[in-house]
Amino acid sequence: MEIKLDEVCEFNLSQIANSENYEHYELYPYFKIENGELVSDIGIDPKRIVSEFEKYGLSKPLIEERCELNELGIEVGQGIGFKKHKENSINESNKKINQEEIKSKIDVLNLDNLKYLKKIRKQEDRIRNLEEQLKTINVIKAYWWLIGVSILIGGVLSELISLIY
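User: That's the sequence. What structure does it adopt?
Assistant: Structure tokens below.
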């Protein structure tokens, strides 16, 4: 029969949290499984159980060999149990990771959007400048004959004035 660490944690957390003398601690070398065997006898290091409790915020830091539950540990041990608490913690952690990934993607998309808008503004400025140049060219094309006549009249007048004076 293979006993999983989570099951051993579940059992020991419940035992400590529901102790009859309301002292919510146990000396970790004496952690047991349901049939009363010591966990060290079945190949599980009791320090791993303490480590799991600390990892999920259920116990105070280990003092000598005393594993003492904090308020959350007592509440979880008397309520939902270790496995459910671990599952909830992992789900919460995954949610945070997903939210961070989403925020990161949003930041990248916002940056891309700003670059795109900047590029569009530059293109709109360039189009405006080209339209101005096109208007000037169209005016010259439409009135080229007037410009030519004006230059010719200016040249003739200048010759006449130079002859008169």
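The two ends are 128 Å apart (CA to CA).
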